[in-house]
Amino acid sequence: MRNGEIYATMSYKLIRKAKGFLFDLDGVFIQSKKLLPGALRTIQILKRRKIPFRFLTNTTTKSKKTLYTQLNDLGIRCKVEHIFSAGYSGIKIIKEMGNPTCRLYISKDLKEDYQTCNFDNLNPQLIVIGDYKSWNLNLLNQAFNYVMNGAQILALHVGKYYKTDSGLKLDAGAIVKGLEYATNKKAIVVGKPNSLFFKQALNDLNLAPSKVLMVGDDLYNDIYGALKLKIKGVLVKTGKYNQITLENENLKPEVIIDSIDHFADILNSRE
Predict the structure, then answer these.
(1) What pTM does this model have?
(2) Phi, psi of 67 (to 5 degrees)
(3) What CATH number did the domain enclosing 103 receive?
(4) Which of 51, 74, 188, 214 has the greatest number of CB atoms lying within 10 Å of its CB?
(5) Does some domain include residue 66?
């Protein structure tokens, strides 16, 4: 047996022996609002074998209700409490901070989850940045001046880019990092790779990190974020996966597979 075959066999055993899974959504199960091949089969196998799983997503374009409805409409049956989204988790952070006045730079749909916030578009104590399609130079300067006047930055996530049918697009992380650089202030990060975000889902699974695998397409947010808690990572070659990025980084996932369809094949195979 060649070295590559030995590595593959050992890696696949790791997947089959896991007692629970954390899954990213976009680029792993869903691409451009459509299910990727193997998505439903993976869920069916896990449910049949009674292996618990949770979705851990940095998606902040949708409210938790919309995200839950979308998944179920696509055939992915899950409980709403099994979806851990960076957008919804931001509300908890704001409450823990004592409900400071906020200026939101998030989608219209996600604002449904933020109705209990104290809004202030003149002199907010906190600016909240998520997936926001309306950025322009005036809004960037507005956010910059809020921070220079004392506002904190709450970044729902710091993703570098995301995948669309027309190619890669800059993500919220580019805005957040630009503001940090210009203001010399650090943002509070809510979603992946924040360890607290992973811990929420891990505690809900009630499993030790060594028993769980994180499956995602983002080397930094998914794999690095998981490794900080000693959760081993499975990188899929779909979504925003980039071979050049993988080759240039010291960070290496425990397992690399072609897709969630490949993942289902491994789960379903026998040693």
Answers:
(1) 0.86
(2) -65, -45
(3) 3.40.50.1000
(4) 214
(5) no
